[in-house]
Amino acid sequence: MAKPDLSTKYLGMDLTGPVIASSSPLTRQVDTMLELEAAGASAVVLPSLFEEDALADPTNSKALSQRVQLVKDAKAQLKIPVIASLNATRPGTWQSYAEELVGAGADALELNLYTITADIAVASAEVEMDHLAAVEAVKIVVDVPLAVKLSSHYSAISAFTARAVDAGADGLVVFNKFYAADINLDSLELFASLDLSSPADQRLPLRWIGILRSQLPGISLACTSGVHSGDEVAKALLVGADVACTASAVMQRGAGAITEMLEQTSGWLERHNFASVADARGKMSASSTRGASVYERAQYLDVIKGNW
Description:
Elements: E1 8-10, E2 13-15, E3 19-21, H1 30-39, E4 44-50, H2 51-56, H3 62-77, E5 82-87, H4 95-103, E6 108-112, H5 124-141, E7 146-150, H6 157-167, E8 171-174, E9 182-184, E10 189-191, H7 203-212, E11 220-224, H8 230-239, E12 243-246, H9 248-253, H10 256-271, H11 277-280, H12 297-305
Parallel strand pairs: 3-12, 4-5, 5-6, 6-7, 7-8, 8-11, 11-12
Antiparallel strand pairs: 1-2, 9-10
Helix pairs in contact: 5-6, 7-8, 8-10
């Protein structure tokens, strides 16, 4: 029996496999990106250019120049798609930075929506309108596919995703990881630390991709957070994701973690008689199982009513 076909399509791009290397320290340098490519990553996402960094020096942004050069260098040496990333939450003059990243050769752009709304006077509707305006503003100025990396904190995620698609999103990355401050009890100071994910972190993205798959036909869906092995890749495919994105695993185990994931995914497909990634995709989405209730309140009730 032939080995399962691992190829997939994401943002209109034909990819060799379902595992993408998310933004991480390994995507800041071309040499480590080459290692990720050799290990089987089908695309790489570069570190985000933050709106704040670019606006701090709008006439000659060092951050922008460095990111543009990284795109050029990556495109010159990698055979897999290079996805540039921009972190911004409202329209503004920074939109030209999206143009420059694409002009440098990026195959696609990921817009990272990350907001902490601390002002008690700012309502959720206002935040969402800013985010949607940012999506629309970027889509207007770029001619490559646009993925929007979402927060899980929207009060009505399904409705917001539909509006993001209307605003121009070609794909959705589910979900953004939020880093929160901790407290040093000795010095009485706040500090931030990097918390790497665990496989349990995948459960929330799985739920929402399972819900969204049938409601957003034709839209690319990427599962991120908690992807550490072929098991998580298989689960992402089953709920309807086109790709699974990984960062923590390669930070902990190196680029070879992706090779392991692909081998495990191939073995899982073979054991279940799936000839390809496409055959497995969506087999356990909300529209393909006991209905949407399994992905909504029923999951909560099953856990709460279960034996502890």
